[in-house]
Every structure is written in C-alpha cells, then in structure tokens.
Amino acid sequence: MVYGAAGAIGGAVARAFARDGARVFLAGRTLARLQAVAQDIRSRGGTADTAVLAAELGSSGVRVICLRLRLAAGRLTPRREGAVV
C-alpha cells in the first residue's frame, strides 16, 4: 500500500513497486488522481494488480483503508519501511 499515491512522490513509489512486480494498492484522498496513477501502471505492462482506495487519511480513514486492503489482499508482507505489498 502506498499512501499519498496520487502525488508525485507517492506515484513514483507505486510505479517503482509495480515495475518490481509487486501487487500495489494505492491510497489517497483524490480518486481521479489515484485512478490515473493506476492506469499509468497498467499501461506500462507491469504484472501488478493495482487496487485504488480513496479515503481521508486521518486515523479513521486509515482504519477503513486497512480493512479494505486486508479484505482485498489477504496476507500482507512487509517490503520496505513504511510500505507493505
């Protein structure tokens, strides 16, 4: 999961994970921008399965995102500091 994936840095991180073959989950507040990043990842032919999760990133929003992610992905494996794939 990449928080802030609609932004320049978060989008770059998500794209890098996808290039490495990771299943990437994008999280942020702006659905249209998240969808654009997801489409870009898919258009580059990566093998990543990208899910878009839009929510407020406050504490309650993070809980909602984590619940959605757990339902969608099942088991999560830590990949890098601050990120799981």
Describe this structure in words.
- 47% of the residues lie in helices and 18% in strands.
- The chain is of the alpha/beta class and 85 residues long.
- It has a single domain, classed as NAD(P)-binding Rossmann-like Domain (Rossmann fold, 3-Layer(aba) Sandwich), CATH 3.40.50.720.
- A three-stranded parallel sheet has the order 1-2-3, with helices on both faces.
- It is globular, with a radius of gyration of 12 Å.
Which terms summarize this structure?
85 residues, alpha/beta, Rossmann fold, three-stranded parallel beta sheet, 3 helices, 47% helix
Short description:
The chain is of the alpha/beta class and 85 residues long. The protein has a single domain, classed as NAD(P)-binding Rossmann-like Domain (Rossmann fold, 3-Layer(aba) Sandwich), CATH 3.40.50.720. It has three helices and five strands; from the N terminus they run βαβαβαββ.
